[in-house]
Write the C-alpha cells for this entry.
Amino acid sequence: MKRLFLKSVAAAAVLAVCGVAFAQERTIKFTTQNPKGHPLVMGMEKFAEIVQAKSGGKIKVNLFPGGVLGGDAQVVSAMQGGTVEMASLNSGILASQVKDFEVFDLPFLFANGKEADAVVDGPFGKKMHAKLEAKGLVGLTYWELGFRQITNSKRPITKVEDIVGLKLRVIPNAINLDWTKALGANPTPLAFPEVYAALEQGAIDGQENPLSVIAANKFFEVQKYATLTNHQYNPQSVLISKKFWDTLSAAEQKIISDAAAESTTYQRQQAREQANTALDAVKKGGMQVSELSAAELAKFREKMKPVIDKHGAASPDALAELNAELAKLRK
C-alpha cells in the first residue's frame, strides 16, 4: 500500500512538472485599455504570475495597460498579424469580426453579474469565442468590466429628457451609436485612450463606463455628474493571437488556458469589490451621483426596445440562444 502511495505521489510530481519541461522560452505582450490598479489589469497581473509559476519562469508575460499599444481596433489587428500576443477588451467590440458578438452590447441584457457569469462560462460563451478562430483570434475566458453608467459635465440626469442633446462618447460600434441616438443624445465614437482629453477640452460632454473605470481613470476630474443607469454589461474577452497560439505546444497551450481560467475567479472578485468602493471614490472626487426612479428607468427601457429589435434581428440565432439561457436561469 505504501509503495502504491509513493508511486502515485511520484506520478503526480511528474505531471506537475511536465508543462514546465515542455515549455520554451517565450515572451507574451498582454494589453488592455485600462490603467494599473483597475480590476482588468489586476487580472492580467494574476495571469502573468500563474503563467510564470506553471512554466517555471520560461513563459514571461509583459503587461501593457493604459492603451499604450493603441486602441482596441489597432490591438485586434495586431493580434491577427501576430505582433501582439494577448489582449482583454469588450466582447461587443468583436462584432466587427463576428456579427453575433453584437448581442453582448444589447442594453439591459443581464440583471446581475451572476447571470452574466453563467451565460459566458457556459455553452453560449464558449460557442461565441469559438467563432473567432476563423478571424485569427482565440478566446480564452471572459473577465468582468461591470455595469455601465453615464457621466457628463452639463447637468444631472434624473429623467430621459435630461440626456437629450448631450454629446456622449461611446464605444465605436453600431449598437452604441443607435441606443445613444434613441435617448436623444449625440454619439461620438472615440478610442478609449482619447476620452479623458476630449472630456477635459470640452470636445464631448460625457461618456459611459462602469464606475470602476470612471474612478480608475479619474474622470471625476473632468466630469461633474454621474447617473446610475446600469444600462449595459460588457463581458471582457481575454484573447490570444491564433498565429501565436498555433506555435505553442499542447503543454504550453494548457499552461495558458489553465492560467486564464484560474485568474478569472480572482479578476471577477476584484471587479465586484472595486465596484462597491468606486462609488465612494467618484463622490469623494466631487461627482454628484443620481439614481433613476423605477418609472424613469422603465422609460429608458422603452426607448431602447427599437434598438434591441433592430440589432437582435441581425443575429437572430445568437440572440435566441442567449435568451434561452437567460430564461433557464430565471426559472
